[in-house]
Write a structure and sequence with these properties.
Helices cover about 30% and strands about 25% of the residues. With about 300 residues, it is α/β, with parallel strands linked by helices. The longest helix is centred in the first third of the chain and has 15 residues. It is globular and about 50 Å long.
């Protein structure tokens, strides 16, 4: 398990002073030392202390998984990577001190999103679980259903219009799927999370059809942080959708792959939107910590 790097401002100040004491840095060198310490952190603006919403985009290779920890300590897991990420998921959750998941969302039946969920459900205490009403005949999907049954859990239908009562300080809205289709990707559960003045739009593998339906539904799509749909495939993140979201930051959950993800088309579109892009394949696990006003963004590498 690779440990996530943390670069909080208070730690940085301490290390700067420690460096000065040990190496005899002169005041003229302080700026250089501080710059090195902040190398892997983007501040927008600084967030410190308790009362934070943490949205962690876990590095699960060519797949997706987001762990959310509320200001009150409630937990939510959206997807869990592919089948080969089962142990990695357990290790991640252990490293963040998670023994119970208050909410679990399987966005859609594709293995690169739900492959690790069965073992997570087997090993942890689970509160509510949401999945869209679409079936799959894969062994991965059957294994997940078996784990759910073994725990005596009842799956709630993931669909537009739901408000999840997860934490009284955080609004969690499900805004897709808007209609029922037989396409796995376009049945993806899409979740908007709002804490104070900060917001996240987590899209699963929702493609252009689902994006169009969300636009037509009239729901407020505006969000600071966008999980780019379908790992940066050109089938998602249409110009109209992106213009409605207007993200300041975009996260692409992607690993080594033969699909060409993320595509140049989407990267160019995000650049035109002037969104700051973070990628698991380049930066490892990416965490956004919000105090309701701004973000502390930390990358693994």
């Amino acid at each position: 398990m690779i440990r996530q790097k943390t670069c909080w401002a208070v730690v940085g100040v301490f290390l700067v002073w420690l460096s000065i004491l040990l190496t005899g840095c002169s005041p003229a060198n302080w700026e250089e030392v501080a710059g090195r310490l902040a190398e892997n952190t983007s501040v927008a603006p600084a967030v410190e202390g308790e009362g934070q919403l943490r949205v962690i985009f876990l590095d699960v290779g060519q797949g997706a998984s987001q762990l959310l920890i509320s200001p009150s300590g409630h937990t939510m897991l959206i997807d869990a990577g592919n089948n080969d990420q089962e142990q990695a998921m357990l290790d991640y959750l252990r490293s963040y001190g998670v023994t119970r998941l208050d909410v679990v969302i399987g966005t859609h039946p594709d293995a690169d999103h739900i492959g690790g969920l069965d073992r997570v459900i087997d090993r942890l205490d689970i509160g509510e679980i949401y999945m869209p009403r679409i079936q799959s005949n894969t062994k991965t999907y059957e294994s997940l259903l078996n784990s759910i049954r073994s725990k005596g859990l009842k799956v709630k239908t993931a669909k537009a219009g739901l408000e999840l009562y997860w934490d009284e300080q955080v609004k969690v809205s499900m805004i897709a799927p808007v209609t029922v289709t037989d396409d796995n990707n376009n049945m993806s559960a899409v979740v908007k999370v709002t804490y104070g003045r900060t917001s996240f739009l987590l899209t699963g593998d929702a493609e252009s059809e689902s994006e169009r339906e969300m636009l037509e539904s009239g729901v407020n799509l505006r969000a600071d942080v966008l999980l780019v749909g379908h790992h940066g495939s050109k089938s998602s993140t249409t110009a109209k959708f992106l213009n409605a979201v207007k993200p300041k930051y975009a996260v692409i959950q992607v690993g080594e792959n033969s699909y060409g993800h993320p595509t140049k088309t989407i990267l160019d579109r995000l650049s035109k939107q002037q969104a700051e892009v973070y990628r698991n394949d380049l930066q490892g696990t990416v965490e956004f910590a919000s105090d309701g006003e701004g973000y502390r963004i930390t990358t693994e590498r």
